[in-house]
Amino acid sequence: MENYLIHSPLFASIPVGEIKRLLSQVHHQVKRYHKDDIIAFSGDECNSLQIVLSGSVRGEMMDMAGRVLKIEDIGPARPLAVAFLFGQNNRFPVTITANEEVELLYLRKESVIKLIQISESFLTNFMNAVSNRAQFISGKLKFLSFQSLRGKLAHFLLELDRQESGQVILTKTQEELAEIFGVARPSLSRTLRELHNEGMIQADGKRIQILDRKALRDCLVR
Predict the structure, then answer these.
(1) Chain Cα centroid distance, residue 80
(2) Burial of 27 per CB tally in 10 Å (0-12, 13-18, 19+)
(3) I need a surface site. Which of 42, 55, 64, 129 has the fewest CB within 10 A?
(4) pLDDT for the residue 101
(5) Secondary-structure class of domain 2-145 per CATH
(6) Which of 137, 1, 171 has the alpha carbon at shortest distance from 77?
(7) What is the value of pTM for the model shown?
(8) What are the extents of the domains in the chain?
């Protein structure tokens, strides 16, 4: 297990032997789930820190129209809902479902507190993980605030090209992107084609060239 955890952001820069020593001082357990098992429902109390050891899970939420939106896939060594373990409303913000056979490490809140107290490295990593999730959630809320698919897609492409190189390589299929946007794949394909035909982008498979950055930004306010 320690060999998996060295890749976790929560145990970054902590040697395997030290991880083993830390875990020996706190209560923890490993749970296994099958494909499509529900690990946690949105609104469930979050009283344990969970880290994916193997397999992957997905976080999904339902919008006001009743559509299921996939927020992200979470793979090995990454924690779940790390920003929601503490606080007054410590509940899962999304429903967590197993994509395949999954193993999760469970650390109860009391165990996390003890790790923070006895390991400065874990404390620093935990604070960084919480901050990173807060920034991710902020960006996701901004993305979801766009009413039109054009706005969502324009924001997505501009975020991928923060360095303004003009070149974007899509790492997800159109089917996966459609799940993230909460639309049918043909709708996503049509909108991509519209942006292409209007000269804002040049789409060639997974390679996207941004031709008119200003026009894309204008889609954000329409």
Answers:
(1) 9
(2) exposed
(3) 64
(4) 97
(5) mainly beta
(6) 1
(7) 0.66
(8) 2-145, 149-221
Task: Estimate the crossing angle of helix 149-160 against helix 185-197, to 10 degrees.
Answer: 70
Structure tokens at 147: 């009413």
Structure tokens at 97: 């479902």
pLDDT band at residue 20 using 50, 70 and 90 as cut-offs: very high
pLDDT per position as a tens digit, 160-204: 888 889 999 988 888 888 877 778 888 889 999 999 999 999 988
Mapping DSSP to helix (H, G, I), strand (E, B) and coil, where does residue 120 land?
helix
The answer to whether 51 touches 80, Cβ cutoff 8 Å, is yes
Class of CATH domain 149-221: mainly alpha
Q: Which residues partner with 48 through β-bridges?
A: 108
Please give the single-letter amino acid code of residue 205. G
Using a CB cutoff of 8 Å and minimum separation of 24, what contacts does 115-118 make? 115/22, 115/26, 118/22, 118/25
What's the confidence (pLDDT) of residue 70?
Answer: 79
Secondary structure (3-state) at 107: strand
3-state secondary structure string across 15-64? CHHHHHHHHCCCCEEEEEECCCCEEECCCCECCEEEEEEECCEEEEEECC
pLDDT digits (tens, 9 = 90+) for 24-40: 999 999 999 999 999 99
Token pair of 58, please? 């997905």
- Helix (H) and strand (E) counts for the chain? 8, 11
| Distance of alpha carbon 159 from alpha carbon 192, whole angstroms | 16
